[in-house]
Amino acid sequence: MKYLILNHGSENISELKSYILNKTPDEVTIEEFWDNAIVELRNLGRLGRANIYSQSKVRIVKHIDLNIPFRKFVYRDLLTLEQQMHMAGIGTNSVGIYFRTFRTICNKAIKEDVVNYEWYPFCLLL
Questions:
Q1: Domain parsing of the chain, residue ranges
Q2: pTM assigned to the model
Q3: What tens digit of pLDDT does each residue of 106-116 get?
Q4: Which residue in 1, 103, 107, 118 has a CA-CA distance of 20 to 30 Å to 96?
Q5: What is the spatial distance between Cα 4 and Cα 6, in angstroms, rounded to a whole number?
Q6: All residues at 6 or more sequence positions from 81 whose CB lies less than 8 Å from its CB, including other chains
């Protein structure tokens, strides 16, 4: 109730959940956020997309730890992940699917103000 009183008119489900769990946005891990996105999709009946998200996460977690806050994941980690996946024999098209799904999760986190756009690891400044 305190959150609703303090944020009347600008309530946000993600912020409310973080408030209830006493977590700041920086403490929400990539894995936790990704799992929540899968649950949301299943609740909406979008089972095909939920399965793609789930399968992509399973493959990525085999090669890199996603149980970290978004801000600790950087571009270098993407390069390492890509190398490890190719060395494990995962095809280029499959890697592309997993990375597109990961990028979608990152975009969703930015849209939900879990992390700032400046963090975005898929964007390179030249």
A1: 28-119
A2: 0.75
A3: 999 999 888 88
A4: 118
A5: 6
A6: 60, 63, 64
